[in-house]
Design brief:
3 domains; alpha+beta; elongated; 23% strand; OB fold (Dihydrolipoamide Acetyltransferase, E2P); 34% helix; seven-stranded mixed sheet; single chain; Chloramphenicol Acetyltransferase
Amino acid sequence: MSLEIRVPSLPESVADATVLNWHKQPGDSVAVNENLVDLETDKVVLEVPAPRAGILAEIRAREGQSVKAHDLLALIADAGEVGLSVTAATAPAAKDEEEPSGPGEAPLPEEDQDITLSPSVRRLVKELNLDPSQIHGSGRDGRLLKSDVMNYLDAQERKQPAKDHDALRIETPAAAVDLGTLSRESTRPEQRVPMTRLRARIAERLVQAQQTAAILTTFNEVNMQPVNDLRIRYRELFEKHHEIRVGFMSFFVKAAVEALKRFPVVNASVDDQDIIYHGYYDIGIAVASPRGLVVPILRDCDQLSFAEIERGIAAYGQKAKEGTLSYEDLSGGTFSITNGGIFGSMMSTPILNPPQSAILGMHAIKDRPMVENGQIVIRPMMYLALSYDHRLIDGREAVQFLVTIKECLEDPARLLLQV
């Protein structure tokens, strides 16, 4: 008897999801808890595992289709019903192949009716004017998946700058070439790809923050030499004892907690005409993922040790890379830290992560000449930026908050003594 696979319950604030990628095709055998399909929401990618072993008999929701909680995704047949499964799998596939084009769409060319292409992939290939034979298929029996097309586009985009550069290296006058005669299509390529739900959500929240909050940014600089010396002095002992490397972020998290304790309004948020003061310190750490910027939350940072903070950040970084962050990992947060320095940024103005009222921006550490006790010395310096909602936080509080972080980092003993 076939088992229905349905969309799991979605988080409260998530209305629907998009079928991102099927890992199995009709007729494939599946094992218990094996991931069948990825569903993309505006926050995370959800995996839908198989509740039992069997054969994927039929796919009811195609890649790119929008689905809601408890919608039917697929059917799984018992392993002993292979004949029935193949029949059930083949019929819908044939129906899909004959599916007419949508309103206003031209019918697909006959040469594109490749049996290894699903309707959604076939349309994507046609819209982008790609040759399917040039794309490696990672699906069953070489079947071309939507992710294969996107990976191909990414690879081509990485090659494009080099091609453009070579195209302009035309040595004449012996064989002069008029650049105006070159095909516009070959020298000015364009690609149109759908925006992911996460990217769309990021755009929506950034615009929301700029439209609803009175964002200002204050800057300062910090001498990172004391933190550097401390890390070097205890690096091997710390790693041996805690089995994790001590990085810079744990110092910034601890310094931020100390500053938030002194200036509770920076840890607060605006709710209509009310101010909500949070008696806990849940700090979001901005992490770059293949799908875009995500901000997982370290909970109760005032109760975490340096090692626990480093482990938490490392775990979130790995989950972001693998696309396994859960909705709970990204929910809440009272303050955020973003580190553009890892990409080489010297100065930036970070944007608030609503409904939070402030965000700390870290930047690249660079050796610069500084004056200490009347002498010019070289110190590893970092610019800090604090963006804040001026509806709630006054400039005086923002500046003193940032000065507190500077003092804690330039004299790490303050973090231990809380002075």
